[in-house]
Design goal:
Distance between the termini: 57 Å
Strand order of the largest sheet: 4-3-2-5-6-9-7
CATH topology of the largest domain: Rossmann fold
Number of domains: 2
CATH class of the largest domain: Alpha Beta
Radius of gyration: 20 Å
Bound molecules: S-adenosylmethionine
Length: 260
């Protein structure tokens, strides 16, 4: 296939057979499972996935890739490609009462908004296996107290169990990206690990807390919660945002929901 990789679509095609094999092993696709691939590209993951599960739905934005991949996949199984933007895609249309298994070597330029778009639909998702920038995976999996812990860590960990699976060097892709990559498993909780009464309050509070991560809570949360509210929710107003656990953020969000 002669296709010039398009930077604006975040196209870095996987070509390392060993990495592909380890990814497929980690996903362990089974016939009959509702698998959906985001950004199948030239099929590096699509074809081995199809061989294992016989049917696959895929969402690809670049229309020039759709026809060649459809042709390439015809002898392997049933591939249904939706030529669409995954950022706007309604995954409930594919779920139809089942929970989806999402897979993708994601376009890195849109990975954070895409993750938030998917988290908002996590009730339709059983698990997700994604290749991302290593730095993003590190932030997703970070624990309180670490310099990598931030808004992404808290919000992802509220929705999912995060399991980093493997680091991947730039040379595994063509063209090679400028950054290291990592493959990660995300499993939406069947029951949230903490009780949050109003999700919008959690989102607003965590966003504001980390907007100025060097400041203390009493300063970053000004306008949302006062010192007394912070203390009565079980946190020290003099603490820095990166030291609070998910439980503490949930307590602050519940306090915010009561006061507004
Ligand atoms: N899966 C292939 C592989 O591993 O070689 C391609 C991975 S490449 C990093 C990302 C893919 O996502 C490209 O095929 C690109 O065209 C597609 N893509 C980019 N933006 C997208 C979007 N908003 N929605 C769906 N697909 C998108």
């Amino acid at each position: 296939m002669s296709h010039r990789a398009r930077k604006r679509f975040g196209q870095n095609f996987l070509h390392d057979a060993d990495v592909v094999q380890r990814i497929i092993q980690a996903i362990s696709p089974q016939p009959g499972q509702p698998l959906v691939e985001i950004g199948p590209g030239q099929g590096a993951l699509t074809l081995p996935l199809l061989r294992a599960c016989e049917r696959l739905e895929a969402i690809e934005l670049d229309r020039d890739l759709v026809e060649p991949l459809t042709r390439k996949a015809a002898s392997e199984g049933t591939l249904v490609i939706h030529q669409a933007d995954a950022l706007k895609f309604d995954f409930s249309t594919l779920a139809q009462g089942r929970k989806l298994r999402l897979v993708g070597n994601l376009p890195y330029n849109i990975s954070t908004p895409l993750l938030f778009h998917l988290l908002a639909q996590s009730r339709y998702i059983k698990d997700m296996h994604f290749m991302l920038q290593k730095e993003v995976v590190t932030r997703m999996a970070a624990a309180p107290g670490s310099g990598d812990y931030g808004r992404l860590s808290v919000m992802i960990q509220y929705h999912c169990r995060v399991t980093p699976l493997l680091s991947v060097a730039p040379e595994a892709f063509r063209p090679a990206p400028k950054v290291e990559s990592a493959f990660v498993r995300l499993q939406p909780w069947s029951q949230a690990p903490v009780a949050v009464n109003d999700y919008a309050c959690l989102e607003a509070l965590v966003k504001q807390a980390f907007a100025q991560r060097r400041k203390t809570l009493r300063n970053t949360l000004k306008g949302l919660l006062g010192e007394e509210d912070i203390r009565s929710s079980g946190s020290d107003p003099g603490a820095r945002p990166e030291t609070l656990t998910l439980q503490q953020y949930a307590a602050l969000a519940n306090r915010l929901a009561q006061t507004h």
